[in-house]
TrEMBL record:
Catalyzes the formation of cyclic 2,3-diphosphoglycerate (cDPG) by formation of an intramolecular phosphoanhydride bond at the expense of ATP. This is Cyclic 2,3-diphosphoglycerate synthetase. Belongs to the cyclic 2,3-diphosphoglycerate synthetase family. InterPro entries: Cyc_diphosphoglycerate_synth (IPR016557). Its EC number is 6.5.1.9. It is found in: Cytoplasm. The keyword Ligase applies. It catalyses: (2R)-2,3-bisphosphoglycerate + ATP + H(+) = cyclic (2R)-2,3-bisphosphoglycerate + ADP + phosphate. The keyword ATP-binding applies. It comes from the Archaea.
């Protein structure tokens, strides 16, 4: 038997009241739908009364109005979802009361309450969240791809490990394994030759969980996923099995790592959200960017420097985050490369996914901080043909291939370098606090960890 669906309807004054009433009664006549209440969201052309009591009497069910009839009552929508334990918000409004941006904002509110937002030809489903973890946990997710999520995840994992919380990372990626894969970064020596062996066996040895294991030297579990919806759900993934596997491992704290803009479909206690300052401001402020930001206990804003983002843009993003999620701490950062091996006095070919526009900054940092000479750079780790061309151009001048562990780092960059007799050194990316102390970022991450542990202990208390 199908469960009863508790529904709230959004209505407006641009529709003739008997027409709206007929639509609501059509919904309520369905055996599996129970229309609990209506929310008036604006429009006055055909509105005969602005009295909630009169409107409720006419519609024969509770009708709620916002304080300003000309503005969408977003907060009221969330409040009434909670009041009626609504499963679905049905949109019976239209232009001119609602446009695309307003509908996405409503979607952010509704999805944030765990309900379905539905209209005549659209439906937004809340995120899938399997409640399977048996240990304290946090989730690291992003508002897009190539904003440094894995670098921040590795940094956070390393910090959490150093503070002796004994973490395990469960990561999902587009190139992840068919079955969840354990990588003992805390036990094995992950050398270029070892990664080549894995690659030759058909393993995507530059997948995120390998990067986490190499950079942070901790236990990781690798999973796969395909597809990513607008709110962050995925089409297929084995991450639920990966999380269940993590329950059985010798770890006391679990970090769930997202993939691009896709969000791990496993419930966690707390959330760290990455926002790339290089992203179009429209994508951050509109669509379902606000939905992701509202999930955050901590927002780490990355790439906060020219030419990727002006100071004015960074301030605008920080202010926007503060407006929609005032409880979340916001920390602005930039990335700086950190070789895992000694490159002093050596000629270096540097392979990265960073855009060409910032390569000058990164080269200057490498040469000044690590005493090397960068003879060539390539931003094409995620484009195999262009990466191959760049390597051919510079490889005879280099002693060392310095590469991030991403995309084609193993099967192209590492392979070509080893065949040419070059040393291969992998490179971490460190999120550096832009204006302030690095302790500010470290303390904020540990605060989220402590909140997650407290949530878990409170939940486990009878």
């Amino acid at each position: 038997m199908k469960a009863m669906e508790r529904m709230i309807c959004l209505v407006d004054g641009e529709h003739y009241l008997p027409v709206t009433k007929a639509a609501v009664e059509t919904l309520d006549s369905m055996e599996h739908i129970d229309v609990k209440a209506l929310i008036f969201i604006g429009g006055t052309e055909k509105l005969r009364t602005s009295s909630p009591d009169e409107y409720s009497e006419m519609m024969e069910r509770p009708v709620y109005f916002g304080e300003d009839h000309d503005r969408i009552p977003y907060e009221l929508i969330g409040k009434l979802i909670r009041k009626y334990c609504a499963d679905t918000v049905m949109d019976l409004s239209d232009e001119p009361v609602l446009d695309y941006s307003k509908r996405f904002r409503i979607a952010s509110v509704v999805l944030g309450e765990g309900a379905v937002y539905r209209g005549p030809d659209f439906e937004f489903q809340p995120l899938t969240e399997y409640d399977v973890l048996e240990k304290p946990s946090l989730k690291i997710l992003g508002t897009g791809k190539r904003i440094g999520k894995t670098a921040v995840s590795a940094y956070a994992a390393r910090l959490i490990h150093e503070r002796r919380y004994n973490p395990c990372v469960v990561a999902m990626g587009r190139g992840g394994p068919e079955e969840p894969e354990i990588v003992r970064g805390d036990e094995i020596d992950i050398t270029p030759e070892y990664l080549m062996e894995q690659s030759d066996r058909g393993v995507h040895a530059a997948s995120d969980h390998w990067e986490d294991a190499l950079m942070s030297r901790i236990l990781t579990v690798g999973c796969r996923r395909c597809g990513g919806g607008m709110a962050g759900d995925v089409f297929i993934t084995n991450m639920k099995r990966g999380a269940e596997l993590a329950n059985t491992l010798d770890a006391d704290f679990i970090i769930l790592e997202g993939s691009g803009a896709a969000i791990p479909p496993v419930k966690s206690m707390r959330h760290i959200v990455l926002v790339g300052a290089n992203q179009p401001i429209m994508n951050i402020k509109n669509f379902l960017g606000p939905f992701r930001i509202k999930l955050a206990d901590l927002v780490i804003l990355t790439m906060c420097e020219e030419p990727m983002a002006s100071d004015m843009k960074v301030r605008e993003i920080v202010e926007f985050i503060g407006d929609i999620n005032p409880d979340a701490e916001v920390i602005a950062t930039v990335f700086r490369p950190k070789p895992l091996g000694d490159i002093a006095g050596k000629n270096v070919l540097f392979a990265t996914t960073a855009p060409e526009s910032v390569q000058g900054l990164l080269v200057e940092h490498l040469e000044s901080e690590y005493g090397c000479r960068v003879v060539g750079t390539t931003p094409h780790l995620s484009n195999r043909p262009l990466l191959q061309k760049d390597i051919e151009r510079y490889i005879n001048e280099a002693d060392v291939m310095l590469t991030e562990l991403k995309a084609a780092a193993v099967d192209v960059a590492t392979r070509d370098a080893l065949e040419a007799g070059l040393e291969v050194v992998y490179c971490d990316n460190i999120p550096v606090v832009r204006d302030g102390s690095q302790d500010e970022l470290d303390d904020a991450i540990i605060d989220v960890v402590e909140m997650a542990i407290n949530d878990f202990n409170t939940r486990k208390t009878p």
